[in-house]
Amino acid sequence: MSLAAIAAAAIAIGVSMSFFNAAGQLPGVDRADAVPVDDGETGEISLTEPISPFDDAHVAVARLDPALREAVQSAASDAAADGVELLLTSGWRSADYQAMLLRDAVDEYGSESAAREFVSTPEGSRHVSGEAVDIARVDPALWLEQYGSAYGLCRVYANESWHFELATTPGTECPPMLADASEAG
Ligand SMILES: [Zn+2]
């Protein structure tokens, strides 16, 4: 297979995944099943030390959906040319780590329903399936909100300016935002 054919195939896969995300289906189910989640890795990233989307020695990056990882990397390269540094505070997370974050949020917000506006269940989280990234700091997140659709990347929640997923075909408009993570199921 020629390099051009491989590239074309990769683009076709990326586009179809974006299509399924935009249609609100569950593209992560098969992938999540394939990811080894019980090996003790959590994917935790220190809030004070966000990591580069090119840091694929970190499981938070290594276990991302490859199409998402590539999209974030190309956005990060273009952002860098604009003098904006795109770094991640979260990428892939283990189901156990997601469950812990939800328990912490229930403690913090006082109820499961309040917590669910900010933190998904292990079953529902797009981080656990490797299909979401959180961007460090306000200005880089705003850059990605403005330019992300060129890469298929969209802010999906009105109350989370930092959380992005592949949610549109690159170069087309992002779908309307959901109010919060509790609407994603
Ligand atoms: Zn997130």
Automatic annotation (TrEMBL):
Q: Which UniProt keywords apply?
A: Signal
Provide the GO MF annotations for this entry: peptidase activity
Q: Which CDD domains match?
A: Peptidase_M15_like
Q: Locate the D-alanyl-D-alanine carboxypeptidase-like core domain: which residues?
A: 63-146
From what superkingdom does this record's organism come?
Answer: Bacteria
Q: Signal peptide span per the entry? A: 1-22
A Pfam entry, by short name: VanY
**GO biological process per UniProt:** proteolysis
Under what name is this protein listed?
D-alanyl-D-alanine carboxypeptidase-like core domain-containing protein
